[in-house]
Amino acid sequence: MQRRAMAALAAALLAGARGRSAAQPPHPLAPTGRLRVGIGIAPVMSAFWASRDERGEPRGTTVELARALAAEIGARLELVAFNSSSEVVDAVAAGELDVAFVPIDAERAARLGVGPNYYLSVSTLGVLPPLAITRIAEADREDITIVGVQGTTTLRSAERAFPRARFLAAVGVPQALAWLRAGQAQAIALGLESLLTLRAELPELRILEGHFHALGTAIVVPPGRPEQLAAASAWMERAKADGTVRRALDAGGIAGPVAPAGSRFGA
Prior knowledge:
The structure is a single chain. This protein is 36% helix and 25% strand. The protein is α/β, with parallel strands linked by helices. It has two domains: 34-120 and 214-251, D-Maltodextrin-Binding Protein, domain 2, CATH 3.40.190; 122-212, 3-Layer(aba) Sandwich (D-Maltodextrin-Binding Protein, domain 2). Strands 1, 2, 3, 4, 5, 6, 7, 8, 9, 10 and 11 form an eleven-stranded mixed sheet that branches. Helix 2 packs antiparallel against helix 9 (244-251). The protein is elongated. The N and C termini lie far apart (71 Å).
């Protein structure tokens, strides 16, 4: 009886050793077993912005991309919410996040490990009555105040596009909307998808013809981590090819096309 017990114990120990030796090494994107992904939360939806459902759970394109990535690499997903893309970028640059999905410009490309674009978008202005302009070119006036989200590529681009206008930098989209409703600004600078979403709660909002900025939204990782960047880039290209990105965009109500294979900032 004792010999049988000892044999069973030995077999169990051997099986455990085999299991440990066969275990997969940590994935470069989640070396601790958890995948920390930053998302922007706002009452609008876009290729970057996520929102919350009636239960307070995050939903949208970046949420679906994060879930798909975590599932593929077998990591525990940890979503970290922020008020703006600039806050997400700061957290990635500091190594506080493993991955994020953000709009890219030259300033951000210099601070992050930037992978492929998954979406190409344009930014424009939404205006409220009594402002009567209809085209982007008409917004460069000294009597117009434009509100945007501080630290974003959209706001920086608007400041360059409309040098005579005045600007307000809001902490997040809710504050930008509050200032717009209060008459502190006559126009709001956002991505086209976000402005289309806003019209559900602001039916009087008019989206101006044309755009002042076009940019890619890409997967990013902390700087100076080539193995992590290579893994993120390979996954993103697969996700574009196998329909994962298309499904994520659909989940966020984004009808625009998936970025082409190989699309990158500066390429």
